[in-house]
Amino acid sequence: MKIAVIGGNGQLGMDVTDAFTGNGDEVASLTHSDIEISDLSSVSKVFAEIQPQIVVNTAAMHHVEHCEKEPEKAFAVNAIGPRNLATVARDLGAVVMQVSTDYVFDGAKGNPYVEDDNPLPLNTYGITKLAGEHYVRATTPKYFVLRTSGLYGKSPCRAKGGLNFIELMLKLAKERGEVKVVDSEFVSPTSTAELARQIVRLSRSEDYGLYHATAEGSCSWHEFAREIFAATETQVRLNIAGPNEFPMKVPRPKYSVLENRALKSRGLNIFTPWQNALHNYLGDRVKSPAPHARA
C-alpha cells in the first residue's frame, strides 16, 4: 500500500517509516520542507502527487512551553493541520491515522483512562491536540486516532533537545553521579518502535475509531529511572525530587496512564509491559547506539 508519513524525520515518524517499509509498503516520508500541513493547498498538492492510501500524522508542535507562548501557531499545527490532512484524505478515499496524546486528560481520575473518559486538557498543547482529534473525527469516517504516552525512541526528539528520558537519565548519571526524579507523576512509558508496529497492525483493519495505544502497565518517572539504571547496571545515587524542586512552568497531568481497552476488545493490541520495551530499547542501544547516545 502507499503510505504517507507526516513528520517522517521525527522520533516517532522514523520508526513508523521503518515499520511500514519493513511490512513491504511503499512509503513517502514527508518533512516540513515537503509539506505544510496548516496550509490546505500544500496538502492537496502533495497528496495529488503521492496518492496515498493511508496517511499517518506524527507531526505536531510538541514543546509544551512553546505552545503556551504561541497558541495560534500550536492551533495551526496541532488542530488545523490534522483537519487539512483529513479533508484531503477523505476526498482521495484514504485512511487517516492521527497520533494524539495523554495530555488531553487532566490527571485527576487516578486510574487508567479509557477511550470513553471525558477529556479535560490542562494546557494549550493538550487543548490543540484534542481539537485536532475532533477535526479528524468530524471530517472523515475512515480514521484512527491514537492517544499515546511517554514516548521514547532511537531517533532524537528535537522538541526535547535531542534527548529522550532514558538518554537524559544516563547522561546525568554519568556526569553527576546523582540524579533526582519526581515520584508523584505517573505515565505509561512507550517505545516508538512498538507504537509503530501497532500502527501498522491497526492500518490493516477497518475498525476505525479512537484508541489508546501505550505500553502495558505504568510507573512513576522515578520508577522508570530506577529500572533504567538497574537494567544498565549504572552506578548512581537515585533520589526522589522534592515537591517544588522542579516547578512546572505549564500545568501538566500528574497521572496520565492510558488503558488500551479498545485495542484489546478488538483483538488488535500488540503492546507488551513497559519493562519489556525498555529492555529491548537498551539492548538495541548497545548493538547500535543512537546518534544522541554517542554524543
Write the layout of secondary structure elements.
Blueprint: E1 2-6, H1 11-22, E2 26-30, H2 40-50, E3 54-57, H3 64-69, H4 71-92, E4 95-101, H5 124-139, E5 143-148, E6 151-152, H6 165-176, E7 178-181, E8 186-187, E9 190-191, H7 192-203, E10 209-212, E11 219-220, H8 221-232, E12 237-240, H9 261-265, H10 274-287, H11 291-294
Parallel strand pairs: 1-2, 1-3, 3-4, 4-5, 5-10, 6-9, 7-12
Antiparallel strand pairs: 8-11
Which terms would index this structure?
single chain; 12 strands; globular; alpha/beta; 295 residues; Rossmann fold; 11 helices; six-stranded parallel β-sheet; two-stranded parallel ribbon; disordered C terminus
Structure, described:
- With 295 residues, this protein is α/β, with parallel strands linked by helices.
- It has a single domain, classed as 3-Layer(aba) Sandwich (Rossmann fold).
- 43% of the residues lie in helices and 16% in strands.
- It contains eleven helices and twelve strands.
- Residues 291-295 have low confidence and may be disordered.
Uncertain runs are: 291-295
Number of strands: 12
Average residue pLDDT: 91
What's the helix-strand series?
EHEHEHHEHEEHEEEHEEHEHHH
Fraction in beta strands: 15-25%
Name the CATH superfamily assignment: NAD(P)-binding Rossmann-like Domain
- The gross shape turns out to be globular
Helix fraction bin: 40-55%
Radius of gyration: 19 Å
Please state the structural category: alpha/beta
The second-level CATH architecture is: 3-Layer(aba) Sandwich
**Count of helical stretches:** 11
Number of domains: 1
Q: What is the CATH domain class?
A: Alpha Beta
Largest sheet: 6 strands, parallel
> Strands across the major sheet, in which order?
2-1-3-4-5-10
What is the CATH topology assignment?
Rossmann fold
Terminus-to-terminus distance: 37 Å
